[in-house]
Specification:
Number of helices: 11
CATH topology of the largest domain: L-fuculose-1-phosphate Aldolase
Bound molecules: Dihydroxyacetone, zinc ion
CATH architecture of the largest domain: 3-Layer(aba) Sandwich
CATH class of the largest domain: Alpha Beta
Order of helices and strands: HHEEEHHEEHEHHHEHEEHH
Length: 272
């Protein structure tokens, strides 16, 4: 068996799930051109795959996360289209393993495209995977995408936007509180791919599974890409409803504070 075949076999379930999710992103219209990226911690699945430490595969880059030493990630490639990831994941994703010395990573698999590099948002992805491990959280996948309606709402003018926006979203649909009872994080605008974006995302995700990226999009973590997608889909649903009400010419009534509070109570205590 060749090295590439062994990796494809070890990761077949993860590759299928990632590709299906990429198809949903494209289908939703959230993934123009190369918009969005996905990564999954596949260290466990890769544990039986022998890997090379050839310098030819090595990419020097300081990795400031001790707890990621030796870990392996399946990630979408830089500049790839989600619709291509969906159709041909093996040509549009790569697998990398962080060096034990944290001085870079080995690019172990990039299908049959030697030029393919990991996503431009790798800094944010690795910072978030390090956070998930540090906090011993169960999530292993990270998804970034550009949900239209949610982005539109982050352009809302005025101060105290973050809090107001999250409150508005929660008032639009009761399921949101049930799906994400602890709320949604909000990261103020920072340039795409920057260390600053990684930093604001980390603080937005430290208590949340979803973080809105102001004027850019959204990130979510899940046990797999499908779960992360579901969370963003639920948040964006509220954004769609809010904008539909506005488009129909009225400000939505929204769920009352009491109705929202009731959703937070244990089920048995709810009035019937
Ligand atoms: O992958 O969406 O934020 C392209 C992007 C960068
Ligand atoms: Zn983006």
């Amino acid at each position: 068996m060749t090295k590439h075949n062994a990796i494809e076999m070890a990761l077949s379930d993860q590759i299928v799930q990632l590709a299906r999710t990429a198809g949903h992103l494209w289908g939703k219209g959230w993934a123009e051109r190369n918009g969005g990226n996905i990564s999954v911690d596949v260290t466990e699945e890769m544990s039986w795959v022998a890997y090379s430490r050839s310098r030819d595969l090595f990419h020097e880059q300081e990795i400031p996360h001790e707890n990621l030493a030796g870990r392996a990630f399946l990630v979408t490639g830089a500049g790839t289209r989600m619709r291509d990831v969906a159709e041909m994941p093996a040509r549009n994703c790569c697998v990398l393993r962080i060096s034990e010395d944290l001085d870079g990573y080995y690019l172990l698999w990039n299908g049959d495209r030697q030029d393919l590099q990991p996503t431009s948002e790798l800094a944010s992805h690795l910072a978030i995977h390090a956070l998930l491990r540090r906090e011993q959280r169960p999530e292993r996948a990270l998804l970034h995408t550009h949900p239209n309606e949610l982005i539109a709402l982050t352009h809302m003018p005025g101060p105290a936007k973050a809090e107001m926006l999250v409150d508005l979203l929660y008032a639009m649909h009761p399921e949101l509180k049930l799906i994400l009872p602890r709320g949604v994080g909000y990261a103020p605008y920072r340039p795409p791919g920057s260390a600053e974006l990684a930093e604001v995302t980390l603080s937005a995700l430290s208590e949340h599974r979803v973080a809105i990226w102001e004027k850019h999009g959204c990130v979510a973590v899940g046990k797999g890409p499908a779960e992360a997608f579901d969370l963003i889909d639920a948040v964006n649903k509220s954004a769609v409803i809010l904008l539909l009400c506005k488009a129909a010419g009225y400000a939505p009534e929204g769920l009352s504070a009491e109705q929202l509070e009731e959703l937070g109570r244990p089920r048995g205590h709810r009035p019937t």
